[in-house]
Specification:
Elements: H1 3-6, E1 29-31, H2 43-53, E2 58-62, E3 67-70, H3 71-87, E4 95-99, H4 104-116, E5 119-123, H5 129-139, E6 141-146, H6 155-162, H7 172-176, E7 181-184, E8 194-195, H8 196-208, E9 223-228, E10 238-242, H9 243-257, E11 264-266, H10 274-287, E12 290-293, H11 300-309, E13 314-317, H12 319-331, E14 341-345, H13 351-360, E15 365-372, E16 377-381, H14 388-393, E17 397-398, E18 402-407, E19 420-426, E20 432-433, H15 437-443, E21 450-458, E22 464-469, E23 474-476, E24 479-481, H16 483-490, E25 496-506, E26 510-519, H17 527-534, E27 546-549, H18 563-573
Parallel strand pairs: 2-12, 4-5, 4-6, 5-9, 6-7, 7-8, 11-12, 11-13, 13-14, 14-15, 26-27
Antiparallel strand pairs: 1-18, 2-3, 9-10, 10-20, 15-16, 16-17, 18-19, 19-21, 21-22, 23-24, 25-26
Helix pairs in contact: 2-3, 2-4, 3-4, 3-8, 9-10, 11-12, 12-13
The protein binds adenosine monophosphate (AMP).
């Protein structure tokens, strides 16, 4: 059916094809390889095809739920839920939210929605009442799959508070959100709530009786997913993504990593974030690989146990996750001999971290990926075949079918070697922010270029480096200082587990540098020793004026450090702003 996925040309290979292997000078504008065509199919069709070819291979392991499904099992769960959702009245284009930590039901809902042409709305498990109300209302969810509770969040209570008469009718706040169907993954029966298992069982019976009401052919360019962007730098926006964008981005990232059905990929990332849902779940599925979810939320020890016991070949994560895993490895050695590769992405990846992951976690083929939700994930990725130096010092080259240019503040493309804002365009650009043309127009220009807000630089071979975010540059006395470079250096200190540098207000220089340091367990170093460590090795102006020791960093639910919160709390702790600022 989807012949493109079975063509030999799509067999995984390690070579990364990026136009322009020869060194060149001139404008900082590179294009990814186009020798393989884009795949024009839908995610539902892709799952059917893969499940058919890999039916007895393990598709999904969810350790905290003791789930271990083959591709045949996965396809059956997906079809059952899809048939049940159809019978419950959902139709292509309807929005269905998912508000749960990582669990098997998440993955089943992801694919069932895609099969029916529903728009899956990923909701952050950390959302509280006001945020969930905003999200559901903003995109008009008609159905919501949710966990009963997670950690301190009691989702059911929160939903009840939004719709007081939930048992009789969906009035109140949820009515405004067009909500018709609340589906809880818990086994308990609750008035006004439909159980996930009942929808699935109803679909199962329907399938058994020959259910054949699948929607007519869906279009790969249809909207299929809405993700609220992570909010490390501001309020979340509802990026709307298509089958084509998601599926091809996952496919080509897998191509670069050389992922095949022989791989077992450990994904501790939250599924609501594009890294977990696309680069994790979808990429593995397209390749017929085994996906392993080590727990409902990140825990370094559980991740390492999952890698050992499931013989994972690949491990994904954001930098903070790898830092915790390395700290856990320091405390207890593990056998990670099955690992060969993985992806670190989502935030600036310090060189020292990449070196340590390569050598101490047995991940010689680890790649660094740069991307964002608005571009359906990857924009640039290193390749396992790149030289070790390039793999630690760059985010690689532009991925297939994507274009990237670096521009100055007037929008002119700069020369290779010069830094500027990264602009990108291609098939994977979001369709827009849901129901928000004004904000969309601020991010995507009339020629389709996405303004990333990230500052980068290309070398003459088309390898990119991210040197900061426009909002994360500290401007000290007129001098632009990239925090990532200093963080990279501080990580070289043997006592430092994680370092995050932010700007705090200063009367003389406008901003001063403040390094927030998390020490390794049992390690000891004082502020002056840390500054002394920097002296003579990094420019004087880059030596942080302030050093703070912290136990934890404020993180988004996807594990990224929320620098704007850290900057504010640092300024407050240092007495540079008032306690209520
Ligand atoms: P999100 O949309 O939540 O995935 O966030 C995207 C942002 O994460 C990008 O605009 C970058 O600022 C940052 N980011 C992602 N990957 C990398 C990377 N490999 N290096 C540096 N920053 C990254």
């Amino acid at each position: 059916m989807i012949s493109s996925l079975t063509q030999p040309t799509f067999e995984p290979k390690l070579e990364m094809n990026v136009v322009g292997d020869n060194a060149r000078s001139g404008p900082s504008h590179f294009q990814g390889d186009r020798s393989q065509p884009l795949i024009e199919t839908t995610i539902g069709e892709a799952l059917d095809d893969v499940a058919d070819r890999h039916r007895d291979r393990i598709a999904l392991v969810v350790r905290h739920q003791s789930v271990r499904w083959t591709y045949r099992d996965l396809a059956y769960h997906v079809d059952s839920l899809a048939a049940g959702l159809w019978r419950a009245g959902l139709r292509p284009g309807d929005r269905i939210g998912i508000w749960a930590p990582n669990c098997a039901e998440w993955t089943v809902t992801q694919y069932a929605a895609a099969k029916l042409g529903l728009v899956l709305v990923n909701l952050n498990p950390a959302y509280q009442t006001a945020e969930i109300k905003y999200a559901l209302t903003k995109v008009g969810c008609k159905a919501l799959v949710f966990a009963r509770s997670f950690k301190e969040s009691h989702y059911l209570d929160m939903l009840r508070s939004l719709a007081p008469e939930i048992g009789q009718s969906f009035s109140g706040e949820l009515r405004a959100a067009a909500m018709r169907l609340l589906i809880c993954t818990a086994p308990e029966r609750e008035e006004g709530i439909t159980r996930f298992q009942d929808i699935r069982d109803d679909g199962r019976v329907a399938l058994h009786d020959g259910f054949s009401e699948w929607p007519d052919k869906l279009d790969p360019s249809d909207p299929i997913n809405i993700q609220f962007t992570s909010g490390t730098t501001g309020p979340p926006k509802a990026a709307t993504l298509s089958h084509r964008g998601l599926l091809n981005n996952a496919w080509f990232t897998g191509e670069i990593c050389g992922t095949s059905h022989q791989d077992a990929i450990c994904v501790p990332l939250p599924l609501f974030h594009i890294f977990g849902m696309l680069t994790g779940n979808l990429l593995a599925m397209l390749r017929g690989a085994k996906i392993v979810h080590p727990g409902d939320a990140f825990d370094a020890d559980s991740v390492l146990s999952a890698v050992e016991e499931e013989q994972c070949t690949s491990l994904y994560g954001v930098p903070t996750m790898f830092l915790s895993e390395l700290a856990s490895l320091d405390a207890r050695r593990r056998n990670l001999s099955s690992l060969r590769t993985g992806i670190i992405a989502g935030a600036v990846v310090p060189m020292e971290l990449l070196r340590r992951v390569t050598s101490e976690m047995n991940m010689a083929g680890v790649v660094n990926g740069y991307g964002m939700t608005e571009t359906s994930s990857a924009i640039m990725v290193t390749s396992p075949t790149d030289t070790p130096e390039r793999r630690v010092s760059s985010v690689g080259r532009v991925v297939p079918h994507i274009e990237v240019k670096i521009v100055d503040s007037s929008g002119m493309t700069v020369q290779i070697g010069e830094a500027g804002e990264i602009h990108t365009r291609g098939y994977s650009t979001m369709l827009g922010y849901w129901d928000d043309p004004d904000t969309t127009a601020k991010v995507i220009d009339p020629e389709g270029w996405v303004r990333t807000g990230d500052i980068g630089v290309f070398d003459e071979h088309g390898y990119g480096r991210i040197v900061g975010r426009i909002k994360e540059m500290v401007i000290r006395g007129g001098e632009n200082i990239s925090c990532g470079e200093i963080e990279d250096f501080l990580l070289l200190h043997p006592a430092v587990e994680n370092a995050q540098v932010v700007g705090v207000p200063d009367d003389k220089y406008g901003e001063e540098l403040c390094a927030c340091i998390k020490l390794k367990p049992g390690a000891n170093v004082n502020k002056d020793e840390l500054r002394e460590f920097c002296r003579g090795k990094i420019a004087h102006l880059k030596i942080p004026r302030y050093v703070r020791f912290v136990n934890e960093f404020p993180l988004t639910a996807s594990g990224k450090v929320q620098k704007f919160i850290l900057a504010r709390s640092s300024a407050r702790d240092l007495g540079l702003i008032g306690p209520d600022s």
